[in-house]
Amino acid sequence: MIKESEYKKRRDSLAKKMPNNSVGVIFSAEPATRSHDTHHPYRQESNFYYLSGFKEDNAVLLFLKTKEVVKTVMFVHKKDRALELWNGERLGAKEAKKSFLVDEVYESSEFKKRLKEFMKGKDTLFCELGSKKREVKKLLKLTKDFKTKHDIIPLVQKMRLFKSAAEIELVKESIAITTKAHHRAMRVNKKDRFEYELQAEIEHEFKINAAYSDAYTSIVACGNSANTLHYIKNDKPLIDGELILIDAGCEHNYYASDITRTIPVNGKFTEAQKELYNLVLETQLRVISMIKPSVKRSHLQESAEMMLTKGMVELGILKGNYKKLVKLQKHKRYYPHGIGHWMGIDVHDPAPYKDKKHREIPLQKGMVLTIEPGIYIDKDDKSVPERYRGIGIRIEDNILVTKDGYENLSSAIAKTVDEVESISTKL
Ligand code: GLY
Ligand code: MN
Ligand code: MN
Q1: Complete domains list, the chain, with CATH
Q2: What is the pLDDT of residue 13?
Q3: N or C: which end of the chain has fewer CB within 10 A?
Q4: Nearest-angstrom CA–CA distance, 244 and 387
C-alpha cells in the first residue's frame, strides 16, 4: 500500500516544480458512459490517483504556491445520503480531511467560489491543458487573465518514470495474480473450447484474487489470429495443433501487469513452432540480460531486431545478409513493434522516453518496463516455408531496473518449452 506520506511527498515534489504565484489544478476522471444510461465502473484518472490516492469522481486537487507557502487543497463530492442509496458511499469533505494529508478540503460545489479567492495575486496556471474534460474548459475561462498557462501533466508523468519501493511491491502483487491466471490458462483442458472461454478462465482468476479489472483487454489469439497485433475479439475456436498467444494482465490496487505467453492448444509444441518459439525466447532472454542503468531502450530494440532477423535468415524466412535486411527494415514485416514500454499505474505508463532536448532517456534504477519480442507470420505468406505459416509468437515479461542490473518481476511464469509443456494439459 502507498502511505499517505508518500502521496504528500509526490504533491510537494510537484509543487516544487511550479514557480511562485502559481496555481496548479488537476481534476478527477469523468465517469464513462458505456451505452445509453449504463456506465463503466469508475476508475480514477492515473495522474490524479498518483498524486492523491483518492478514488472518487467529482474531485479536484489544487496547488497554491507563493514565495512564503505551498498549500494543497482537495475538493470532494459532498456526502449525500439520497445519492448514496443508488451509487454507493462517499467519503465527504470532513472524513477526507481526516484521511488525506492535504491542507484544506471542501465540497466540490464550492470549487468555483474558492478558486476565485485563491487566484488572487497569482499569475501562472498549471492545468491539464490538452484535456477534453469539461471542467478544464471551464477552468480556462475562469483563469483567462492569467499571464501564463502550462500543462501540468508532463510534470507528473516525469515523476511516474521512477517507481518507489511501495509501488514496486504493488506491481509485484499485480504480477503474482497474473501469474496464477496464465498458469490456469496453461493447465485448463482446451478441447472443443473457444478463445473467449480461455479469456474467462484468465479473468476469473483475476477476480477471485481481488484484481478488480484487467489492465487492458485480454488478447487470446489462436493460430493465425495471433498475427493481428491488437486482436481482442477472442471469438474463434481453439484448434488442436495450433498455438495460442495470450497477452493478459490484471490491474490490482491501480497497478498493471502486462504478460504474454504463447502456448500450444494440445499441450505440445510442434517442431516448427518450437523453432520459432525458441528464437523469440532466446532473443527475449538476451535482451533482458542487457538491462542495467545507462543502457538505452533503442539499443535493446536494435539488438532484438538483429537477433530475430539473424534467426529468421537461418530458418529461411528471410533471405540475405541479416544486417543489411535490418538496415532495409525487412524484419518489420515479421516483427513490426517495439521491444517494450514503461509500465506502472497504466499498462503503457505515459512517462517520457525523451528529455527536454529530445535526447533518449537511458534506463535508470527504479524504472519498470516490458520486454516483448515477437514473430508474426501470416498464414498466406507464400514467401515463408509453409511449416511456419499461420504462427504468431510473443513472449513478454515485466522488468525492474536495479542499481546494477535488473530483476525479472514475472520470472515465476512458465516460459521455456519444457516448462510450458509440463504444466499444460495434453489433449
Ligand atoms: N498488452 C499491451 C502490450 O503488450 O503492450
Ligand atoms: Mn502485453
Ligand atoms: Mn506490453
Answers
A1: 4-159 (3.40.350.10), 165-423 (3.90.230.10)
A2: 96
A3: N
A4: 17
